[in-house]
Design brief:
It is a single chain. The chain has 603 residues and is an alpha+beta fold. The chain contains 18 helices and 18 strands. The chain has three domains: 238 residues, BirA Bifunctional Protein, domain 2 (2-Layer Sandwich); 178 residues, no CATH class; 154 residues, Threonyl-trna Synthetase, Chain A, domain 2 (Threonyl-tRNA Synthetase, Chain A, domain 2), CATH 3.30.980. 39% of the residues lie in helices and 21% in strands. Helix 13 runs parallel beside helix 15. The radius of gyration is 27 Å and the shape is globular. The N and C termini lie far apart (64 Å). About 5% of the residues have low confidence.
């Protein structure tokens, strides 16, 4: 079976069991405590906590997920940053018995996997939560041999919550035996062994508790089921491949770890870029920059290096498996990813031009950074005769040289690398991010409470312009920053191409039309979550408090109740758009890779 057939087979199986098929949600989670969607249950989180589900109490999905927790393991046979999570969910409906029975039915009857190759783990219990005897007994009733069912601790068989708090509970996991031969542990070679004998296929989570920010567990009023099975792993087993990278979702034939890392990271980059994320030094943008530059770095390892500085590297360091990676090698790889997923996730095809531009801009920018940074790094490391965390931190802050590159330079020169440099650099980088975030809050948080009327006018005009840009250029437009004075506004937004004169004129016309309509500017106080659910735009969401101000600009007499603009904002505003005057764009220019800058005034 192909990956497409398997995906549909899973969804249709649970549809026949009374589940509503729900499309994948965005990779950008509405939960402000997490950067990305990492699990299928995230879009359904509130339904586990008692809120009525608009889809009914049984749903199923194939969810796009992005995780960096296992990034250092990417390149082995199973770990990925971007993956699809197949799942079925119950909100106060069925529980353990049905979940286990259906999982076994799907794997053995629909996927034709041999029952004797399935091994099961259950939660063994601890001081807070008792052993999951019920799941063990259900598996026994389904004629799973006692020797194939094993108890494990909370680390392996207790899941959740996503974010700082939420539903969680014990799990039972289904592992598939790839080889009957145990490792050197003998009888102790069981599921969760690191030897590669088993692959974890399906995690069935029984949400029985709510965990708060202090890690305290309280029983949920309604129990729920949240299951997750990695599509890539299932495809690997069904297609009888030795790694997820050999399936039709990747089609790599090489055993090169570097190639696997590149393949994973470019796929993740395509999907992050399709969400409108632009490489930057903070939050989601930093993650995209990191995986793109990591892919480029591994491409340099595969590519025979020609520059004089790196000729000293050994043949082993410069060439792996004889594979040559040309300049801009990420573009054809990204196009291949788009081709694989265009029918399942049409957004990667419709946004192809933007995705490829973002990737190419970052590749070119990083090449310049490396060219300059490598010279400085080589000089500093050579002078010191070693690489310390202080040197690495300074190189990152002043030249943008990643720790991995500094370590490679030191290794190639035969210099020692400070012990625990990753830990020390990690502390520096965390502080660096906090400073960057604070700067972003100051830059993008608007103007102060004492701002004058002119600033309030320009703040309101910014909201009108933002929405006008989205209407003319597309929904990929997102605020990347703004600076407002009493004389003018400056607005940075995500867009890869220079605006045409016609586009600028259309934006002006829309804004001035809304000004003439004398629309009401309405302010409401609500929770961040309710604001997002209501359709309000929000950027730099990590800085928002629990309660936020939402400004809606529209006609209150409109029977449809629709508004032109709705945003979370901390700045001052006028009461009606007629107070603004005439809006005029003065300049449009580049403000970085994939970011444009507009300067405008009110006359």
């Amino acid at each position: 079976m192909s990956s497409s057939e398997l995906r549909q087979k899973f969804l249709k199986f649970f549809e026949k069991k009374g589940h509503k098929i729900v499309p994948s949600s965005s990779l950008l989670s509405t939960d402000p405590s997490v950067l990305f969607t990492t699990a299928g249950m995230q879009q359904f989180k509130e339904y586990f906590l008692g809120k009525a589900s608009p889809y009914g109490n049984r749903v199923t999905s194939s969810q796009k997920c992005f995780r960096t927790s296992d990034i250092e393991e990417v390149g082995d046979t199973t770990h990925l940053t971007f993956l699809e999570m197949l799942g079925n969910f119950s909100f106060g409906d069925y529980f353990k018995k049905e979940s286990i029975e259906w999982a076994l039915e799907f794997l053995t009857k629909d996927c034709k996997l041999k029952k004797e190759k399935l091994w099961i783990t259950v939660f063994e219990g601890d001081k807070e939560v008792p052993e999951d005897k019920e799941s063990r007994e259900i598996w026994k009733e389904l004629e799973l041999a006692e020797g194939k069912i094993h108890g494990f601790s909370r680390e392996d068989n207790f899941w959740g919550p996503t974010g700082e708090e939420g539903p969680c509970g014990p799990t039972t996991e289904i592992h598939y035996e790839l080889s009957k031969k145990p490792c050197s542990l003998g009888k102790k070679c069981l599921p969760n062994c690191k030897c590669g004998r088993f692959i974890e296929l399906w995690n069935l989570v029984f949400n029985e508790f709510h965990q708060d920010k202090d890690k305290k567990l309280t029983p949920l009023k309604q129990k729920g089921v949240d299951t997750g099975m990695g599509l890539e792993r299932l495809v690997m087993v069904i297609q009888k491949k030795s790694s997820v990278f050999e399936t039709d979702l990747f089609s790599l034939t090489s055993e090169s770890q570097e190639e696997r890392i590149i393949a994973d990271h470019i796929k993740g980059s395509v999907f992050l870029a399709s969400e409108g994320i632009i490489p930057s030094n903070v939050e989601q943008g930093y993650v995209l920059r990191r995986i793109l530059r990591r892919a480029i770095r591994y491409g340099k390892v595969l590519n025979p290096v020609r520059d004089s500085e790196n000729r000293e590297k050994s043949k082993k360091e410069r060439i792996s498996n004889g594979v040559k990676m040309p300049k801009n090698f990420l573009i054809p790889l990204a196009q291949k990813v788009i081709e694989i997923y265009k029918d399942v996730y049409p957004e990667v095809k419709s946004k192809e031009a933007d995705i490829l531009t973002i990737i190419q801009n970052e590749e070119e920018k990083f090449a310049k950074t490396l060219e300059k940074g490598n010279k400085v790094a080589t000089l500093k490391i050579t002078r010191a005769g070693k690489l310390t965390a202080d040197i690495a931190s300074n190189l990152y802050e002043s030249e943008g040289v990643p720790l991995e590159i500094s370590k490679e330079i030191a290794s190639s020169k035969g210099f020692k690398i400070e012990k625990n440099i990753d830990v020390y650099f990690g502390k520096f980088f965390k502080k660096h991010q906090e400073i960057s975030r604070a700067g972003a809050e100051k830059k993008f948080g608007g103007v102060g409470k004492k701002a004058g009327l002119e600033e309030a006018k320009l703040h309101t005009a910014t909201h009108l312009m933002h929405q006008a840009l989205r209407e003319i250029l597309g929904d990929h437009v997102k605020q990347m920053g703004s600076d407002i004075t009493s004389q003018r506004l400056r607005f940075d937004f995500s867009h890869t191409a220079k605006m045409t004169d016609e586009e600028k004129q259309k934006v002006e016309e829309i804004v001035n039309q809304k000004i003439k309509q004398d629309l009401e500017v309405k302010k409401e106080e609500m929770s961040y979550k309710d604001a997002i659910d209501s359709g309000a735009l929000a950027f730099f969401k990590e800085k928002y408090p629990e309660k936020v101000s939402v400004y809606s600009i529209g006609d209150p007499s409109d029977p449809s109740g629709q508004v032109f603009s709705k945003e979370i904002c901390a700045g001052p505003h006028v009461n009606r758009t007629s107070e603004l005057g005439i809006f005029k764009i003065k300049k449009e220019e580049s403000s970085g890779a994939g970011i444009r800058r507009l300067r405008a005034v009110l006359e």
